[in-house]
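User: My collaborator sent over this chain with a note saying "see what the structure looks like." That's all I know about it. Can you take a look?
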Amino acid sequence: SYLIFRAASESDGRCWLDALELALRCSSLFRLSASKQGKDGEMNCSSDSAHAGLNNLLHSSPLSDQEFFHLNESALENHHHLENDAFSDKSERDNVEESENETHENSRKTNESESDQSEIHGEVSPGRKGTTYVEQIYEEFGETGESSQTETVSEENKSLMWILLKQLRPGMDLSRVVLPTFILEPRSFLNKLSDYYYHADLLSQAVLEDDPYSRIKQVLRWYLSGFYKKPKGIKKPYNPILGETFRCCWFHPQTNSHTFYIAEQVSHHPPVSAFHVSNRKDGFCITGSILARSKFYGNSLSALLDGKAKLMFLNRGEDYVITMPYAHCKGILYGTMTMELGGKVTIDCEKTNHRAELEFKLKPFFGGSTSINQISGKIKSGEEVLASLDGHWDGEVHINELKNGNVEVFWNPTSEVRRQRLKRHIVLFEEQTDFESERLWQHVTSAINKGDQHKATQEKFVLEEEQRNAARERRENGTEWKPLLFRHDATTNEWHYKYEDLRPWDPLNDIAQFEKNGILQTMERHLSTRMSNHTTTCINNQITRHKRSAKDCRRRKTSDQPSNHSQNTESSCSTPESVQELSDDDGFGSLCTQCGKEMNHLKEIHSAVLSLQRAQQDIHRLRHMVSSESFLLDSRCWFLLCIFLTCQLFINYVFK
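Assistant: Without extra context I'll predict from the sequence alone. Here is the result:
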């Protein structure tokens, strides 16, 4: 129940209390608990604020999903007012000995509170109220197994299919072909790409694994979790309109964090979808782009997803490059239409030299029901195979650890696992822009859900015609369309999120991650300003104590009736621990021990960085010298080789 600090001197004790107060102020856990307790009327602003802060921190209850999720400017303002009320300087109140000192302390406290408030408002202003997200209540799931991947086309729709197929030839790209609405899934392709993040908590766990083999296993488990959700029947999502965007997020109750997903259609011909996923608090980000292409092969067609996604673990500096399988649909002209996944995919981490390989197998011609949706794979470290996997991508997957021969279930989307899916939140419809997927396709989606294919076709044609007119206007005006949220890197031919933040999460400085108008931001508490305020406070404390000690000494020296006691007191004032004829200027030179240590630590870091920079420059110069020398050696070798060949030809000619 008690925490006792013993300091060598009063000044050290004051610095300790200041450091404790600073640590509590920088703790996001305490801030959130203080906000909740203040809301419930449980916040007690006692005189012993440092002890109250510790007690609140130790007994704080976590915020619920909705309380944290609707964190806005007003809540933060109220919370910071609570924080300033709850935190007073205990050491100053305990040492109110003189009236002038008390006045000085009160004025200092007021100034500190004002500076804290201005600092807080400076932090909240860039993160005004974020986007309002609401939980998605309904989520459609197809049946497990083969039944949800087959569909019998009605006679009416078959006639539409024949009209469409007459325009096609084998090997043709279907990206410019207008497909009938009865085969459309009522959501955009940008929305469908977000299906991989309902189990993003597996990535949060992977970041915490110390062993690289355990990390890539957890990443592979997350990768498999994105496939078992299937639509009812064989459906294709909408082709996104150029400039279309989609935003959503998932709340992690275990870590009190959010995974944000932002996607944009950055190109229409060819159709390229770029996406960015971020959860800085849990330590991972994903970025990538997908080029969707369709190929017609007569009785079948394939939807190819060209592109890569890069998963980054921010605290470890690891990148996992991930590829995607293709979707294959057969039975278009005759037989039952069936959809499967096929192809080989990889998850490759160059830093740890670990690699996972998976093969999605198509059902063989004479295969039974158990041979559909099969996968097999292996996990490698360099050239060494560590484990092998086999099973079904929509069911059980087993792993065989080759070192010890253990075989166990690696992944199985049971009903319990499905219940543990993270809740997805989508942007409130009133706050969506005209090019948000849900608002953009709302009339088409409504008609499909009502079964009115004629109305859906009309609404779809209106959107496509508007897109053609906009492209025609840009050509006539000579203007180039530019994406809103992503930029293209011409050297690597990759798309990057304009506002990506790949810094590791700093729990002392970062409060929460939020999104506004497609821009991901982090609400921060700037420690540099806090440290400068702390240093100024320590200097003021030193000056005040030095003035008080000097005044006491002068008063005792000029006493009318000196005695043995006064002489002892006078000598005690001249001891090293008290004061050594200190002036006002001396206070600035004698900072507290903690500040001195921090300054020395910063100097050491600065010198270390400078030495690293010098070493990098030396290495760069050496590389340049070696490359130039190797070029000279190569030129010399070529010259000698030419002379040798000339001599050989001459000798052959002479002795022929």
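A starting point for your reply to your collaborator: The longest strand covers residues 300-313.
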